[in-house]
Amino acid sequence: MKSDALSAWLVESGLRNLPFEELIDGFGRRLNEAGIAAARLFVGMNTLHPLVRARSVIWDRATGPATRFEFQHAEVDAPIIAQSPFVAMLRQGMAERRLDLTLPASEGEAPLFAELREAGMTDWFGRIFPFGEFEFQIQGPTITEAGGRLGLVCSVSTDRPGGFSPSDMTAIATVLPLFALAVKAITLRTVGQGLLAAYLGTDPAARVFSGTVQRGEVQGVEAVLFYADLRDFTGFADRLPPHELINLLDDCFDCMVRPLTRRGGEVLKFMGDGLLAIFSTERRRRDESCGLALTAAGEALDLMDLMAEERRKSDQATPGLDIALHVGKVLYGNVGTDARLDFTVIGPAVNEAARIELLCKELGQSLLVSQAFAAAAGRSRDHLVSLGSHRLRGVREETELFTLAR
Questions:
Q1: Which of 181, 179, 171 is nearest to 4 (CA)?
Q2: Which of 86, 174, 248, 308 could form a disulfide with 3 if both were Cys (CB 3.0 to 4.6 A apart)?
Q3: pLDDT at 136 over 60
């Protein structure tokens, strides 16, 4: 059969995690090599990512997988999604559909089919593949995946006169489920790593996926520590409604995190109304990491000021932000119990950063920098001014603290 070689290739590709777009390109080319005139493929699937709702790729025989779409959660009602033929299939409970594009357009037909006719397509076949338990809830114009289940939609279009032959359709019916299974094998790893990155951070997620999963599996590294906490946030928690409080907290975290991630910082954990992040010194010089952390801290404070100014227009208060920067050796890796682990950093340097941050309010400063950080900062040291020596709780000797000259 014309599908045998393609079926074997799909199984092999799924087993060895061929990159997603390579899989689509190889599938399209091999369909044509098997005598099935596939002129265009569409492949789309939803995700479990906190920002991205769905991704899709269009493969064209002439250009390969050259067209890509990515939809945010807020775009679920966008016309390009609402007018998709797969939405109509879901509404009608159809797992597959075939359309003869040589026939005149019917009333209410998806705009896609007019586009395909104009491009010379003669036949279209679409399939929906659930990954595990799969259920869509349709409420008016809105479609949501019940329980966040994953699924794949795909279609094959041909420009062959007369459309797909009976033998073409037999082969397509054989290979499409194998294609969906290969996509599932490849993308579920991507989905899993994306989820881990959202909750653990990019570097910890990569380490976990590479096999760093046992308790006590840690390594000593030097890092620049970025310890931040909202000042007097408890008062806001006492008087704001829950939804309004969470929105405020998310806005504050946006101000802290965006400057961090733009400069290569890694948020390790959110702690109530604060966070702990690091700038690794493994791949860059210590002074460069210090400079990036200092710039990120300054920008985070500026963003908080802008947010406070905007909220004042509607008589809304805003918490302050306190940041401590420190540099030192830490233990980085898995800590916890056999059944529940946390990927984090621990060590005296982390404790010192937390205690430096506690002095921000007492010293009337939003940013405090340790003596060790100042010594490692290189040229960035010129932007710091000394606040004299101070005693940290639990630390015997006094240490000099600095702040950013503003």
A1: 171
A2: 174
A3: no
**Whole-prediction pTM value?**
0.68
User: Is residue 132 scored above 70 in pLDDT?
Assistant: no
* Other beta carbons less than 10 A from residue 362's beta carbon: 9
Instruction: Look up residue 39 and give its two tokens.
Output: 């002129």
Alpha carbons 308 and 312: distance in angstroms, whole number? 6
d(CA 308, CA 310): 5
| pLDDT tens, residue by residue, 358-374 | 999 999 999 999 999 99
Structure tokens at 154: 């795909």
Domains and their CATH numbers in the chain: 4-200 (3.30.450.40), 202-404 (3.30.70.1230)
Mean pLDDT throughout 240-256? 94
Note the pLDDT tens digit of each residue in 222-233: 889 999 999 989
Q: What is the largest CA-CA distance in the chain?
A: 86
pLDDT at 210: 67
Rounded to whole angstroms, how far apart are CA atoms 73 and 131? 20
